[in-house]
Fold each of these.
Amino acid sequence: AQTVTQSQPEMSVQEAETVTLSCTYDTSESNYYLFWYKQPPSRQMILVIRQEAYKQQNATENRFSVNFQKAAKSFSLKISDSQLGDTAMYFCAFMGEKGGSEKLVFGKGMKLTVNP
Amino acid sequence: DGGITQSPKYLFRKEGQNVTLSCEQNLNHDAMYWYRQDPGQGLRLIYYSQIVNDFQKGDIAEGYSVSREKKESFPLTVTSAQKNPTAFYLCASSIVTGHLHGYTFGSGTRLTVV
């Protein structure tokens, strides 16, 4: 079974600084999909960014980018120019392609606080 | 606007009672999912359904039941057999090829046993 590990339960950063959230995963599949979700205090889950394992280019969405290292099974999220609205729980998630694994598997999450 | 509606937002249950959490979507998504969120545990899959009248158990299905009689609706019943039901419950939906766009989530239901 696939597993997703977020080893840092909590981080804080100053507004306008850059922060990196780490995520590792374990799978025997060769093609899969990785996601970062954000859950602000409202508890609404919001998709931040998505990466396809067969694409070598790292995904980017405005201030959010990933560092995808397939061999190391690592998928970190970089937030540039942190804003107060980035304060949230962040979840890394994995989805496989093979039968039975096409469901999102989440890590335990990391609480990010952006300080003014 | 298309989206997922979960109701109620807060639900209180007495021990020994069954309760049903509602999840409705108007996104025309084929697949729907129920996750449970506990502090420090992330989101864990309870049940999912990829087509009407069919559903599969997730990782923590014991003490829960679901139905999928309509494409738009995927209610979750928390039965008295669920030993620790107090949690935040999230419903989600996706197109069948969920890897293309990820899931769309509802705003959740907070269930408390009193």
Amino acid sequence: DGGITQSPKYLFRKEGQNVTLSCEQNLNHDAMYWYRQDPGQGLRLIYYSQIVNDFQKGDIAEGYSVSREKKESFPLTVTSAQKNPTAFYLCASSTTGVSYEQYFGPGTRLTVT
Amino acid sequence: GQQLNQSPQSMFIQEGEDVSMNCTSSSIFNTWLWYKQDPGEGPVLLIALYKAGELTSNGRLTAQFGITRKDSFLNISASIPSDVGIYFCAGVTPMNYGGSQGNLIFGKGTKLSVKP
């Protein structure tokens, strides 16, 4: 089955620690995205990548970092510089070109205490 | 930045009722997408719209791309309990806006709940 996987589903960290969230897709999509979702809010774009070894900041990139070494993988690191890291994180992928349909993974809920 | 206003914010449904929700913006969008999200899960794409005036159905769901390109509507006919969840609209930014070519702007969602 083709799809997007995110692991783990739940993640707990102490304040001051960096943490990396995994995102893998086997849809052969060129573009991948990371969003943050807070209760009662829409999705806000953190980072996106339209091609391997290249990525761009989204609307709320501060305190986050990414890498895109392989087409299938787009890990997100939440650094200790992110002031409010507790949130639901969603990864998505899409083809590039005229279709902008993004397909989402199941999400990772990060809790930092 | 560009914003999408989604309404209503929440609504209660009784099984069998028809449901309508909409998404509006002060800016033009060239694509509209509708997603449904269940609690603790990722959004699932329901319908994609690419042309002004386009009307597209997916089972009991029907969505329309407004003629002005500034709005979109989603209707659910004969609702059933599994329709409960949060529905998001998303618009694709115009190609020449801010360098974020093809990225989605999301509304804040319409939460569908069952009438007590």
